[in-house]
Design brief:
Blueprint: E1 6-8, E2 19-26, E3 30-40, E4 42-47, E5 50-51, E6 68-74, E7 82-91, E8 112-121, E9 126-130, E10 136-138, E11 142-146, E12 150-154, E13 161-164, E14 166-168, E15 174-176, E16 182-188, E17 192-195, E18 201-219, E19 224-230, E20 232-233, E21 239-240, E22 250-254, E23 258-262, E24 269-278, E25 288-295, E26 301-305, H1 308-324, E27 325-326, E28 328-329, H2 342-355, H3 359-372, H4 400-412, H5 416-433, H6 467-488, H7 494-511, E29 512-513, E30 516-517, H8 536-544, H9 553-566, H10 578-586, H11 591-599, H12 606-611, H13 646-654, E31 657-661, E32 666-669, E33 680-686, E34 689-698, E35 701-708, E36 713-718, E37 721-725, E38 728-735
Helix pairs in contact: 2-4, 2-13, 3-4, 3-5, 4-5, 5-6, 6-7, 6-8, 8-9, 8-10, 10-11, 10-13
Length: about 750
């Protein structure tokens, strides 16, 4: 690829998206032909008018000013002996969109293409076709396309010659693809076509998802089909998409005579519904279906319970992850954002790696994160970063640089992910230590805190928990992870071991008195506009990160339970407290309260959204109130995966599965059972084989069926007894007939 040139054209003067074309002649018999190709923008390649790949959104999203991936394709079967042509459609994508992440043309003002065709002949000789000034620019049938604004196509437009490409002097680093392919996979057929109360024609796909609509129709030239998407209907049952903010999300197609296959190439949406704006009278629901689009991750876990609402919650978490794992872990797939927010990524990473194999996905993204780290060690709140749009540096968000690689290592045992991340971890910890006046607390600067916790006034973005107790707790946790990582990599971290002890001591001195948090107790929406240390989130973090003295654990646990009871047996935690809340209860002897929260149906709770028809995870527990009132459209996504982190507790708490040694070399299985769940059946595919944990009730007894994969040591704890076992299938019972 080094000898190939970056090429572009004057995009501002074009009336359609361009294709970059090159004709070439092969006179000898070929053995193999390979295409290496990349783009600062998005590309879609054809050889001799045949599609090269079914993958989408190539070459993926990175900070293009630092590096860009290239893909390799074997195109031997598409090549003719004699005349050939490569045609590459080019879109702006994330790189040079009219606006993306609140920046205009964020990385570059116009897309660039770089490609090489390597031809190996049967006689052993080789030829190369490289991008250079000899390539041609043609118009296309795609009038416009934008990540936020949708895509407009006119299938009557012919491909006309515009001129030659322009060579660019860009020296952007090109690397071989690290991440997963982006694919269209699950096909979703519409549930119904109907009119709302405002006489809008709507189509309901029955599932919120990230992807695109495909239309197949025998059309008449000049007829149009256009639509816009939505996630929900309002309380009157009418179309609602104000929460898309400035994203226009308009899809418009001008039909040709005969068969039309309509599908956007360079835009995607988060949606459940579409509103048809224009369509011919011969269009019907039978002409349309949808495709979910996401990174190509292998599903590794299946969970089934005796509670259908919990099963729906699990389903919602799966679709929430698929919707937001599109090359980077985004926050949402619908509004004018769709950014790689670090806070969302770290709170969900463990659940993500239970649901799917995320090793390759996170390896690529964590390399991006290391490149985006500033020289002083600070890390902005999104990755990839976007030029011209700085995002605040915050604890709990930047701590993704320690939490994500460690969780991925524990799941898959790939030590390289720790090696690649160690310096990033260390620089972040050192940044905190050198920030502010106290090296043992993180008590300065901006922080998102326990984001959208419900223990602050309704509509507030910030929970009631003191930002600095949250920041200091995550500081301690990151130092602890750095120490563990150092031990794994045989790196001296003795200085950080001393630092950790001082952080814990200073934390207890500053935020605790007589073993309890200092400050007023906070329950839902009862606090004035001030923060406190005495919240569910703060106590959950203290317990889970072991920041208290052991003698005070019971006292803290009791205080946490009282806060929950005083709030009507409901949680108040936001983004940072929720992932740890049920663990903090279960690990300290109160799995009964953890189950109460899991099965709670009044908001704020997981099942409240289920009762309101959710098919993915909401950004807010109260995104829709009981009276149909909606949170502000400024920030109200109905496809945010963060609160789906509760699946980690179902797996590790209810299922009792904990990894002691990386890659499931050694595990503990200590299920926490509750009759209200009916039964629990977890099938997880480790690298060593199937791990299966099942419990159910029969004749007043609890039956446990457990299958351990090969080369795994398992500590099974049932009825206060421990069984140390290896590969095999086991059955235990507790209680029974009188």
């Amino acid at each position: 690829m080094n000898k190939s040139k970056w090429v572009t054209t004057d995009f501002e003067s074009l009336k359609t998206l361009p294709s970059f074309n090159k004709e070439f002649l092969l006179k000898k018999d070929i053995k193999k032909v390979k295409l290496n190709i990349t783009c600062i923008g998005l590309y879609y390649p054809y050889i001799n008018n045949k599609v090269v790949t079914n993958n989408l959104f190539m070459p993926g999203w990175t900070d293009y000013l630092k590096r860009v991936q290239y893909q390799s394709y074997d195109i031997t079967n598409l090549i003719n002996k004699g005349h050939n042509e490569i045609k590459v459609l080019i879109g702006r994508g994330w790189a040079s969109a009219d606006s993306f992440g609140w920046s205009k043309h964020p990385y570059i003002d116009r897309p660039l293409l770089k490609a090489k065709i390597e031809i190996t002949y049967k006689d052993g000789t080789k030829d190369y076709i490289r991008t250079d000034s000899s390539w041609d620019v043609y118009s296309s049938y795609i009038v416009s396309s934008d990540i936020y604004n949708g895509e407009i196509q006119d299938l009557n437009l012919s491909s006309n010659y515009i001129g030659k490409v322009i060579e660019s002097t860009s020296n952007i680093k090109v690397i071989k693809q690290e991440g997963e392919d982006i694919i269209k996979k699950e096909i979703i057929y519409p549930r119904k076509m109907f009119k709302d109360n405002l006489n809008n024609t709507l189509i309901d796909f029955g599932q919120n998802f990230a992807g695109n609509i495909e239309i197949r129709i025998n059309g008449k030239k000049g007829d149009k089909i256009s639509f816009i998407p939505a996630e929900i209907l309002d309380k009157s049952g009418n179309f609602y998409n104000e929460n898309y903010r400035e994203a226009k999300s308009l899809y418009e197609y001008t039909l040709k005579d005969g068969e039309n296959i309509l599908f956007p190439l360079f835009s995607f949406e988060g949606l459940r519904y579409i509103k048809l704006i224009e369509y011919p009278d011969y269009f019907s629901i039978n002409n349309i279906r949808a495709h979910a689009i996401h990174s190509n991750m292998k599903r590794t876990c299946y969970i089934d319970t005796g509670n259908e609402k919990i099963n729906q919650l699990y389903h919602n978490t799966i679709y929430g992850q698929l919707s937001n794992y599109l090359d980077v872990p985004t926050d949402c797939p619908q509004r004018d954002e769709r950014l790689g927010w670090l806070g969302d990524a770290q709170v969900f990473v463990k659940t993500a790696s239970i649901n799917f194999n995320t090793l390759k996905f996170f390896k690529k993204w964590l390399h991006d994160l290391a490149l985006d780290q500033h020289k002083d060690g600070s890390i902005e709140g999104v990755c990839p970063t976007i030029p011209g749009h700085e995002v605040e540096i915050s604890s709990g968000w930047a701590d993704a640089c320690t939490i994500c690689p460690y969780e991925i290592y524990m799941t898959y045992g790939d030590k390289s992910i720790l090696k690649d991340s160690f310096n990033m971890m260390k620089k972040w910890v050192d940044y905190i230590k050198n920030t502010g006046d106290n090296p043992y607390l993180f008590d300065s600067g901006f922080h998102f805190g326990d984001w959208v916790g419900t223990d602050s006034p309704y509509g507030s973005f910030f929970g009631a928990t003191n930002l600095f107790i949250v920041a200091s707790a995550f500081y301690a946790n990151s130092v602890d992870i750095l120490i563990k990582t150092g031990h794994i990599l045989n790196i001296d971290v003795s200085d950080y071991e001393d630092l950790y002890k001082k952080i814990v001591k200073e934390f207890q001195k500053t935020f605790l008195k007589d073993g309890l948090p200092i400050g007023e107790r906070a329950i839902e929406h009862s606090q004035p506009e001030k923060s406190t240390n005495f919240t569910q989130a703060a106590i959950a973090l203290i317990l889970h990160f072991s920041l208290c003295e052991e003698k005070d654990r019971e006292k803290l646990t009791n205080a946490l339970v009282e806060l929950i009871k005083d709030n009507g047996m409901r949680m108040t935690t936001g983004f940072l407290g929720t992932p740890y809340l049920l663990h903090a209860l279960t690990d300290n002897g109160r799995s009964d309260i953890a189950y109460n929260l899991l099965l709670q149906e009044k908001k704020p709770s997981w099942l409240y959204s289920i009762n309101n028809g959710a098919t993915t995870i909401w950004e807010h527990y109260d995104g829709i109130s009981e009276d149909g009132k909606l949170w502000s459209p400024i920030m109200n996504s109905f496809n945010h995966y963060s609160y789906g982190a509760v699946i980690d507790w179902i797996y590790c708490g209810a299922g009792g599965i904990k990894v002691i040694k990386e890659d499931y070399k050694e595990i503990e299985i200590n299920p926490h059972v509750d009759t209200r769940l009916g039964h629990l059946d977890i099938k997880y595919m480790t690298s060593r084989g199937l791990l299966h944990v099942r419990w159910y009730f029969q004749d007043n007894a609890t039956i446990y069926e457990i299958e351990i994969p090969k080369d795994t040591i398992a500590h099974i704890k049932i009825d206060n007894k421990e069984y140390i076992v290896n590969e095999g299938s086991y059955m235990f019972s507790k209680g029974g007939l009188d």
